[in-house]
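Annex B. Sample input.
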Amino acid sequence: MRALVRGENNTLSIRQVRDPDVVNADDVLIRVRATGICGTDIHIVSGAYPAKLPLILGHESTGEVIRVGSAVERFRAGDRVVLDPTFTCGQCFYCRSDRPNYCAEKATTETGVARDGTFAELHVAREAFLHSLPKELDFAAGTLTEPLACVLQALRQTRLHAHSRVLVMGLGPLGLMFSLAAQFMGCEVHAADIAGYRVERARELGIAAQDCSRDPLVALAPSNGERFDIVVDTSGCMLEKLLPKVDRGGDLLLIGLNYRYEASIKPSYLTDNGIRLIGSIDTNRTFAPALEMLRRHAPLRGIVSHSLGLERFADAFELLGVSLHSGGGRSAPRANKIVLEP
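Annex B, continued. Sample output.
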Protein backbone atom coordinates (compact mmCIF):
# COMPACT_ATOMS: atom_id res chain seq x y z
CA MET A 1 0.00 0.00 0.00
CA ARG A 2 0.97 3.67 -0.29
CA ALA A 3 1.85 5.58 2.87
CA LEU A 4 3.28 8.97 3.84
CA VAL A 5 6.48 8.19 5.74
CA ARG A 6 8.77 10.40 7.79
CA GLY A 7 12.21 8.88 7.26
CA GLU A 8 15.20 8.70 9.59
CA ASN A 9 17.04 11.14 7.33
CA ASN A 10 14.29 13.78 7.86
CA THR A 11 12.61 13.07 4.54
CA LEU A 12 8.87 12.99 3.98
CA SER A 13 7.71 10.91 1.05
CA ILE A 14 5.11 8.53 -0.34
CA ARG A 15 6.42 4.98 -0.07
CA GLN A 16 5.19 1.51 -0.86
CA VAL A 17 4.97 -0.42 2.41
CA ARG A 18 3.59 -3.80 3.45
CA ASP A 19 -0.19 -4.04 3.86
CA PRO A 20 -1.26 -4.48 7.49
CA ASP A 21 -3.73 -7.26 8.31
CA VAL A 22 -5.83 -8.67 11.11
CA VAL A 23 -3.59 -10.57 13.55
CA ASN A 24 -5.30 -10.40 16.95
CA ALA A 25 -8.86 -11.46 17.70
CA ASP A 26 -9.92 -7.86 18.43
CA ASP A 27 -8.22 -6.33 15.38
CA VAL A 28 -10.14 -4.36 12.76
CA LEU A 29 -8.68 -3.70 9.31
CA ILE A 30 -9.76 -0.29 7.99
CA ARG A 31 -9.57 1.28 4.56
CA VAL A 32 -8.56 4.83 5.47
CA ARG A 33 -10.79 7.42 3.79
CA ALA A 34 -9.55 10.67 5.35
CA THR A 35 -6.92 11.87 7.82
CA GLY A 36 -6.50 15.41 9.08
CA ILE A 37 -3.10 17.08 9.37
CA CYS A 38 -2.53 17.86 13.05
CA GLY A 39 -0.16 20.29 14.74
CA THR A 40 1.67 17.23 16.06
CA ASP A 41 2.37 16.11 12.49
CA ILE A 42 3.79 19.56 11.73
CA HIS A 43 6.01 19.44 14.83
CA ILE A 44 7.29 15.96 13.90
CA VAL A 45 8.08 17.15 10.37
CA SER A 46 9.99 20.15 11.74
CA GLY A 47 11.86 18.02 14.29
CA ALA A 48 10.29 19.82 17.28
CA TYR A 49 8.34 16.78 18.50
CA PRO A 50 9.94 13.40 19.26
CA ALA A 51 8.74 10.42 17.24
CA LYS A 52 9.93 6.91 16.45
CA LEU A 53 11.35 7.02 12.91
CA PRO A 54 10.82 5.83 10.24
CA LEU A 55 7.14 6.40 10.80
CA ILE A 56 3.86 6.61 8.92
CA LEU A 57 2.39 9.88 10.17
CA GLY A 58 -1.28 10.65 10.84
CA HIS A 59 -3.86 9.94 13.52
CA GLU A 60 -7.05 12.03 12.98
CA SER A 61 -8.79 9.44 10.85
CA THR A 62 -11.97 7.93 9.47
CA GLY A 63 -12.48 4.93 7.24
CA GLU A 64 -14.42 1.83 6.29
CA VAL A 65 -14.09 -1.59 7.87
CA ILE A 66 -12.68 -4.25 5.53
CA ARG A 67 -12.14 -7.23 7.82
CA VAL A 68 -12.46 -8.00 11.55
CA GLY A 69 -10.92 -10.44 14.01
CA SER A 70 -12.82 -13.38 15.49
CA ALA A 71 -13.67 -11.58 18.76
CA VAL A 72 -14.94 -8.32 17.23
CA GLU A 73 -18.65 -7.80 17.95
CA ARG A 74 -19.49 -4.15 17.21
CA PHE A 75 -18.25 -3.84 13.63
CA ARG A 76 -18.48 -5.66 10.33
CA ALA A 77 -17.23 -5.08 6.79
CA GLY A 78 -18.59 -1.87 5.28
CA ASP A 79 -19.14 -0.01 8.57
CA ARG A 80 -17.95 3.61 8.71
CA VAL A 81 -15.69 4.32 11.68
CA VAL A 82 -13.59 7.00 13.34
CA LEU A 83 -10.35 6.15 15.15
CA ASP A 84 -9.36 7.03 18.72
CA PRO A 85 -5.58 7.01 18.13
CA THR A 86 -4.38 7.14 21.75
CA PHE A 87 -4.30 3.44 22.57
CA THR A 88 -4.14 2.74 26.31
CA CYS A 89 -3.24 -0.38 28.28
CA GLY A 90 -6.07 -0.13 30.84
CA GLN A 91 -3.86 -1.63 33.54
CA CYS A 92 -1.26 0.94 34.58
CA PHE A 93 -1.59 3.38 37.48
CA TYR A 94 -2.81 6.19 35.25
CA CYS A 95 -5.40 4.11 33.40
CA ARG A 96 -6.74 2.68 36.66
CA SER A 97 -6.98 6.15 38.25
CA ASP A 98 -9.06 7.64 35.42
CA ARG A 99 -6.15 9.27 33.64
CA PRO A 100 -5.76 7.09 30.54
CA ASN A 101 -4.49 10.05 28.52
CA TYR A 102 -1.27 9.68 30.54
CA CYS A 103 -1.06 5.89 30.11
CA ALA A 104 2.36 4.51 31.04
CA GLU A 105 2.46 2.64 27.71
CA LYS A 106 1.72 5.75 25.63
CA ALA A 107 5.32 6.06 24.50
CA THR A 108 4.93 2.80 22.56
CA THR A 109 1.27 2.85 21.54
CA GLU A 110 0.43 6.37 20.33
CA THR A 111 -0.69 6.22 16.70
CA GLY A 112 1.34 8.33 14.28
CA VAL A 113 3.96 9.10 16.94
CA ALA A 114 5.18 5.84 18.50
CA ARG A 115 3.60 3.42 16.01
CA ASP A 116 2.63 3.70 12.37
CA GLY A 117 -0.26 6.05 11.70
CA THR A 118 -3.00 6.61 9.18
CA PHE A 119 -1.61 8.62 6.27
CA ALA A 120 -1.92 5.35 4.41
CA GLU A 121 -4.42 3.31 2.43
CA LEU A 122 -4.93 0.74 5.20
CA HIS A 123 -4.67 0.69 9.00
CA VAL A 124 -5.31 -1.86 11.76
CA ALA A 125 -6.80 -0.81 15.10
CA ARG A 126 -8.27 -2.58 18.10
CA GLU A 127 -12.06 -2.67 18.32
CA ALA A 128 -12.07 -0.78 21.64
CA PHE A 129 -10.55 2.28 19.96
CA LEU A 130 -13.06 2.61 17.13
CA HIS A 131 -16.36 4.52 17.12
CA SER A 132 -19.18 4.42 14.61
CA LEU A 133 -19.25 7.48 12.35
CA PRO A 134 -22.75 9.06 12.43
CA LYS A 135 -24.60 9.23 9.11
CA GLU A 136 -24.69 13.05 9.35
CA LEU A 137 -20.89 13.23 9.05
CA ASP A 138 -18.85 12.57 5.94
CA PHE A 139 -15.36 11.12 6.22
CA ALA A 140 -13.66 14.54 6.13
CA ALA A 141 -15.82 16.03 8.89
CA GLY A 142 -15.32 12.91 10.99
CA THR A 143 -11.57 13.58 11.17
CA LEU A 144 -12.37 16.52 13.48
CA THR A 145 -13.53 14.12 16.20
CA GLU A 146 -10.13 13.53 17.79
CA PRO A 147 -9.07 17.19 18.06
CA LEU A 148 -12.55 18.18 19.26
CA ALA A 149 -12.37 15.43 21.89
CA CYS A 150 -9.08 17.00 23.06
CA VAL A 151 -10.85 20.38 23.28
CA LEU A 152 -13.73 18.98 25.34
CA GLN A 153 -11.31 17.19 27.67
CA ALA A 154 -9.50 20.48 28.23
CA LEU A 155 -12.66 22.54 28.80
CA ARG A 156 -14.12 20.14 31.35
CA GLN A 157 -11.07 20.70 33.55
CA THR A 158 -11.86 24.42 33.79
CA ARG A 159 -14.53 26.30 35.77
CA LEU A 160 -16.47 26.99 32.58
CA HIS A 161 -20.14 27.99 32.93
CA ALA A 162 -22.81 29.14 30.51
CA HIS A 163 -22.14 32.76 31.54
CA SER A 164 -18.33 32.54 31.31
CA ARG A 165 -16.36 35.19 29.44
CA VAL A 166 -13.86 33.35 27.26
CA LEU A 167 -10.78 34.50 25.35
CA VAL A 168 -9.14 32.18 22.83
CA MET A 169 -5.68 33.14 21.61
CA GLY A 170 -4.83 31.49 18.30
CA LEU A 171 -7.33 30.57 15.58
CA GLY A 172 -5.91 27.45 14.06
CA PRO A 173 -8.24 24.42 14.04
CA LEU A 174 -8.03 23.97 17.82
CA GLY A 175 -8.67 27.65 18.48
CA LEU A 176 -11.71 27.54 16.21
CA MET A 177 -12.98 24.47 18.05
CA PHE A 178 -12.49 26.06 21.47
CA SER A 179 -14.31 29.17 20.30
CA LEU A 180 -17.26 27.35 18.75
CA ALA A 181 -17.60 24.79 21.55
CA ALA A 182 -17.68 27.56 24.19
CA GLN A 183 -20.26 29.46 22.14
CA PHE A 184 -22.44 26.36 21.88
CA MET A 185 -22.28 26.15 25.69
CA GLY A 186 -23.61 29.70 25.99
CA CYS A 187 -20.40 31.60 26.72
CA GLU A 188 -19.37 35.03 25.49
CA VAL A 189 -16.35 34.29 23.31
CA HIS A 190 -13.65 36.58 21.94
CA ALA A 191 -10.72 35.29 19.90
CA ALA A 192 -7.58 36.63 18.25
CA ASP A 193 -4.76 35.67 15.92
CA ILE A 194 -1.93 37.38 14.06
CA ALA A 195 -2.76 35.64 10.74
CA GLY A 196 -5.26 37.53 8.61
CA TYR A 197 -6.51 34.36 6.89
CA ARG A 198 -7.39 32.75 10.21
CA VAL A 199 -9.15 35.84 11.53
CA GLU A 200 -11.34 36.13 8.43
CA ARG A 201 -12.16 32.44 8.44
CA ALA A 202 -13.13 32.62 12.12
CA ARG A 203 -15.48 35.51 11.42
CA GLU A 204 -17.10 33.51 8.62
CA LEU A 205 -17.84 30.81 11.21
CA GLY A 206 -19.52 33.34 13.50
CA ILE A 207 -16.65 33.96 15.93
CA ALA A 208 -15.87 37.45 17.25
CA ALA A 209 -12.27 37.43 16.02
CA GLN A 210 -9.65 40.17 16.10
CA ASP A 211 -6.38 40.62 14.23
CA CYS A 212 -3.84 41.24 16.98
CA SER A 213 -0.76 41.46 14.76
CA ARG A 214 -0.49 45.21 15.45
CA ASP A 215 -2.42 45.67 18.71
CA PRO A 216 -1.79 42.37 20.50
CA LEU A 217 -4.01 42.41 23.58
CA VAL A 218 -5.03 45.90 24.65
CA ALA A 219 -8.38 45.95 22.87
CA LEU A 220 -9.43 42.47 23.95
CA ALA A 221 -12.11 42.74 26.63
CA PRO A 222 -15.50 41.16 27.36
CA SER A 223 -18.74 43.14 27.43
CA ASN A 224 -18.68 43.08 31.23
CA GLY A 225 -15.35 44.04 32.79
CA GLU A 226 -11.83 44.11 31.40
CA ARG A 227 -10.74 40.51 31.93
CA PHE A 228 -11.96 37.00 31.17
CA ASP A 229 -13.04 34.00 33.23
CA ILE A 230 -11.36 31.50 30.91
CA VAL A 231 -8.34 32.26 28.71
CA VAL A 232 -7.12 29.62 26.26
CA ASP A 233 -3.55 29.75 24.93
CA THR A 234 -3.28 27.57 21.82
CA SER A 235 0.12 29.04 20.89
CA GLY A 236 2.13 27.57 23.74
CA CYS A 237 4.14 30.77 24.11
CA MET A 238 1.92 33.48 25.60
CA LEU A 239 1.51 32.59 29.27
CA GLU A 240 3.10 35.80 30.57
CA LYS A 241 1.15 38.05 28.20
CA LEU A 242 -2.18 36.32 28.76
CA LEU A 243 -2.06 35.98 32.54
CA PRO A 244 -3.11 39.63 33.12
CA LYS A 245 -6.20 38.98 30.97
CA VAL A 246 -7.51 36.36 33.44
CA ASP A 247 -10.03 37.70 35.97
CA ARG A 248 -10.11 36.78 39.65
CA GLY A 249 -11.20 33.19 40.11
CA GLY A 250 -10.45 32.45 36.48
CA ASP A 251 -8.47 29.82 34.60
CA LEU A 252 -5.63 30.03 32.09
CA LEU A 253 -5.82 26.92 29.91
CA LEU A 254 -2.51 25.97 28.26
CA ILE A 255 -2.94 23.87 25.13
CA GLY A 256 -0.14 24.72 22.70
CA LEU A 257 3.17 22.88 22.75
CA ASN A 258 6.31 24.98 22.41
CA TYR A 259 9.28 23.24 23.99
CA ARG A 260 11.55 26.24 23.56
CA TYR A 261 9.35 28.72 25.42
CA GLU A 262 9.96 29.45 29.10
CA ALA A 263 7.96 31.80 31.31
CA SER A 264 8.58 33.73 34.51
CA ILE A 265 5.57 34.49 36.73
CA LYS A 266 4.93 35.33 40.37
CA PRO A 267 3.08 32.52 42.17
CA SER A 268 1.75 35.09 44.64
CA TYR A 269 -0.26 36.65 41.79
CA LEU A 270 -2.01 33.33 41.22
CA THR A 271 -2.72 33.00 44.93
CA ASP A 272 -3.99 36.56 45.42
CA ASN A 273 -6.33 36.27 42.43
CA GLY A 274 -7.40 32.64 42.73
CA ILE A 275 -6.15 31.89 39.22
CA ARG A 276 -5.50 28.35 38.06
CA LEU A 277 -3.03 27.30 35.36
CA ILE A 278 -4.31 24.19 33.60
CA GLY A 279 -2.37 22.07 31.16
CA SER A 280 -4.26 19.50 29.08
CA ILE A 281 -3.27 16.89 26.53
CA ASP A 282 -5.15 14.24 24.55
CA THR A 283 -8.60 12.85 25.30
CA ASN A 284 -10.25 11.09 28.21
CA ARG A 285 -13.59 9.49 27.34
CA THR A 286 -14.59 12.55 25.33
CA PHE A 287 -14.92 10.91 21.90
CA ALA A 288 -18.65 10.26 22.21
CA PRO A 289 -19.43 13.87 23.26
CA ALA A 290 -17.25 15.15 20.42
CA LEU A 291 -19.08 13.04 17.84
CA GLU A 292 -22.43 14.26 19.19
CA MET A 293 -21.33 17.90 19.05
CA LEU A 294 -20.13 17.47 15.47
CA ARG A 295 -23.42 15.82 14.55
CA ARG A 296 -25.52 18.61 16.07
CA HIS A 297 -23.49 21.69 15.19
CA ALA A 298 -22.78 22.07 11.47
CA PRO A 299 -20.49 25.14 11.85
CA LEU A 300 -17.82 22.89 13.36
CA ARG A 301 -17.60 20.93 10.13
CA GLY A 302 -16.69 24.14 8.31
CA ILE A 303 -13.28 24.02 10.01
CA VAL A 304 -12.14 21.63 7.25
CA SER A 305 -10.99 24.03 4.54
CA HIS A 306 -9.28 21.64 2.10
CA SER A 307 -9.44 17.97 1.10
CA LEU A 308 -6.48 16.81 -0.99
CA GLY A 309 -5.16 13.52 -2.28
CA LEU A 310 -2.39 11.92 -0.23
CA GLU A 311 0.09 12.52 -3.05
CA ARG A 312 -0.44 16.27 -2.61
CA PHE A 313 0.99 16.27 0.92
CA ALA A 314 3.63 18.88 0.03
CA ASP A 315 0.93 21.26 -1.23
CA ALA A 316 -1.01 20.66 1.98
CA PHE A 317 1.90 21.54 4.24
CA GLU A 318 2.67 24.63 2.14
CA LEU A 319 -0.93 25.81 2.56
CA LEU A 320 -0.49 25.39 6.31
CA GLY A 321 2.59 27.59 6.16
CA VAL A 322 5.13 24.77 6.50
CA SER A 323 7.94 24.55 3.95
CA LEU A 324 9.18 20.99 3.54
CA HIS A 325 12.13 22.32 1.54
CA SER A 326 13.48 24.36 4.44
CA GLY A 327 13.20 21.81 7.23
CA GLY A 328 9.76 22.86 8.38
CA GLY A 329 10.22 26.63 8.18
CA ARG A 330 7.02 28.56 8.89
CA SER A 331 5.11 31.25 7.01
CA ALA A 332 1.57 32.65 7.10
CA PRO A 333 -1.08 29.89 6.77
CA ARG A 334 -3.59 29.85 3.91
CA ALA A 335 -5.71 27.00 5.25
CA ASN A 336 -7.34 25.76 8.42
CA LYS A 337 -7.78 22.01 8.71
CA ILE A 338 -6.53 20.06 5.71
CA VAL A 339 -7.63 16.46 5.17
CA LEU A 340 -5.56 14.04 3.10
CA GLU A 341 -7.40 11.25 1.28
CA PRO A 342 -5.47 8.12 0.17
